[in-house]
Amino acid sequence: MELKTLTFIIVGATFALYIGIAIWSRAKSTGDFYVAGKGVHPVANGMATAADWMSAASFISMAGLIAFLGYGGAVFLMGWTGGYVLLAMLLAPYLRKFGKFTVPEFVGERYYSQTARVVAVICLIVASVTYVIGQMRGIGVAFSRFMEVDFATGLFTGMGIVFIYAVLGGMKGITYTQIAQYCVLIFAYTIPAIFISLNLTGNPIPQLALGGSMADGVHLLDKLDMVVTDLGFKEYTTSPNGNMLNMLLYTFSLMIGTAGLPHVIIRFFTVPKVKDARYSAGWALVFIAILYTTAPAVGAMARLNLMNTIQIGPVGSPDGNVEIAHLPAWMDRWRTTGLLEWEDKNGDGRIQYYSEAGLGEKAAEYGWAGNEMTKVDRDIMVLANPEIANLPNWVIALVAAGGIAAALSTAAGLLLAIASAISHDLLKGIFRPDINEKQELLASRIAMAFAIGVAAYFGLNPPGFAAQVVALAFGLAASSIFPALMMGIFDKRANSTGAVAGMLSGLGITLLYIFWFKGWFFVPGTNMAPNSADHWVLGISPEAFGAVGAGVNFLVAYFVSRATAPPPEHIQHLVEDIRVPRGAGGATSH
């Protein structure tokens, strides 16, 4: 069957499944909408949490970054996985013990302050909107490919699907939809990896094939090193030459940012008991590990297949002129999306894709007139990999469905976190405490629709690849939300004044650094600020600065809390109660 038809069938079937589940499990109360009635089984919640957490950045972008960064791409594996362990051990059980709907609600009651709650809402919205921009980019990449349309059309199509099932089902619908999406995305990620692993090494286990040998007896990574160095690029397995301080802070920012992500934290509010929150975290880590241990192999194999495919030799035309050889069909298909571009700049009838800097004088011998692969978007690598490897059409279609599932699952969770913060924490908690449940549900759905529109707008003009945008979101969560949660649980002396000062200072300095060094500030009479690494403070990239912002947050909150009045006695007892995660009951401040 033709690829496009098969893709429409498989992807359409998954859409029907998602929307059917949303209708079946439609939220009928605020408890259903926000925390799925607190009745989700730990294994099911672990699977839903894994789908919620493994976003388009994990499925689509991470292996693409590893493919081009090589060893340096390990920062994403270490940061995101390590952060989940922090979340499971230090936050999830205690927040479930508290027993509320949202993270700002915890902040507001723990710090006995509506101001703290509002600040937490602001921090949550800033981090979550930035994160969902990355998901919208992933949705646009996946939809544009399988529909064979431009990126913008793909993005708006995906936005419509998210709107239907996220607005309709709330947390209850999203939970069961995410279970289905996890099954789709994990099969879509591992099956092509197994095929390609067998083709290259004869070993069906990608994790082992990465360190195995190819048919000619050469180790796969050695072969990849030879291929890329022959074309003038740096060895794939070489340690990055970047600032080690930056790499350390980047990893740490991703870790504590993961532990501070509101849309993941609220998943632990959906289980019946505190013990179930711990079990959910353990199961989620198992489900996450399946993809994360496969990603390095996918990245390496994708890079090898790409480099071997693109170097096309000249072909003579009937009139004696040299013309571009017939390129693989996958390149033409991806060119339609605008995410892959090439140009025969020197008219030699072949595509030259190598590093001029690495080849030096040899470049002139090759007739170098500039890199002829003018655009290779890293976010296409996972989705294009099965096509590059000439896998069966049903596998290619399955990967498209998996990429879309990954982006949709996380986008839905983020949009719910944003909607609940606006409707439950701001509207119901502060401005209109007298509204009834029906009005609150309506407000939640309106807020979610608005958030989808904002995210789609910025998704059309994102500040980087999906994983880079997500890294910025993690930095914002790390600098604002994580310290407030940690001190709220483990420091009885932390008070409302310290929490508010800490969150504002951490978020403020991180936003300032990101905006300045991403070149988004405009100063009249001058050029925009440079975003070159040469200008970063101590070589710290904007994506890594969240760890510095978190440090500022902790220090400000600690010293301001010590310099002002201690929390009331009942709040200090509340903190002690939260740290004893027994039973199903919530902690109380009375």
Short summary of the structure?
The chain is an all-alpha fold and 590 residues long.
Strands, helices and their partners?
Layout (H helix, E strand, L loop, with lengths): L2 H22 L5 H6 L6 H12 L2 H14 L4 H25 L4 H8 L3 H34 L3 H51 L4 H4 L10 H11 L13 H16 L2 H4 L8 H19 L2 H16 L4 E2 L5 E2 L5 H7 L4 E2 L14 H4 L2 H4 L9 E2 L4 H8 L4 H39 L5 H24 L5 H25 L5 H22 L28 H18 L5 H10 L12
Description:
This protein is mainly alpha-helical. The chain has a domain at 3-303 and 385-466: Up-down Bundle (Sodium/glucose cotransporter), CATH 1.20.1730. Helices cover 68% and strands 1% of the residues. It has 24 helices and four strands. It has helices at residues 3-24, 30-35, 42-53, 56-69, 74-98, 103-110, 114-147, 151-201, 206-209, 220-230, 244-259, 262-265, 274-292, 295-310, 329-335, 356-359, 362-365, 381-388, 393-431, 437-460, 466-490, 496-517, 546-563, 569-578; strands at residues 315-316, 322-323, 340-341, 375-376. The strands form two sheets. A two-stranded antiparallel sheet has the order 1-2. Strands 3-4 form a two-stranded antiparallel sheet. A hairpin with a 5-residue loop joins strand 1 and strand 2 (322-323). Helix 18 (381-388) runs antiparallel to helix 19 (393-431) and helix 22 runs antiparallel to helix 23. It starts with a helix and ends in a 12-residue tail after the last helix.
The CATH topology name of one domain reads Sodium/glucose cotransporter
Q: Give the CATH superfamily of one domain.
A: Sodium/glucose cotransporter
CATH class of one domain: Mainly Alpha
Q: Percent of residues in helical segments?
A: 55-70%
Average pLDDT figure: 77
CATH architecture level-2 label of one domain: Up-down Bundle
Shape: globular
Q: What class, by secondary structure content?
A: mainly alpha
Radius of gyration: 25 Å
Strand content: under 5%
Main sheet: strands, sense, barrel: 2 strands, antiparallel
Number of helical segments?
A: 24
- Distance from first to last alpha carbon: 66 Å
Strand line-up of the largest beta sheet: 1-2
In total, how many beta strands?
4
Topology pattern, helix = H, strand = E:
HHHHHHHHHHHHHHEEHEHHEHHHHHHH
Low-pLDDT sequence parts: 315-323, 521-529, 583-590
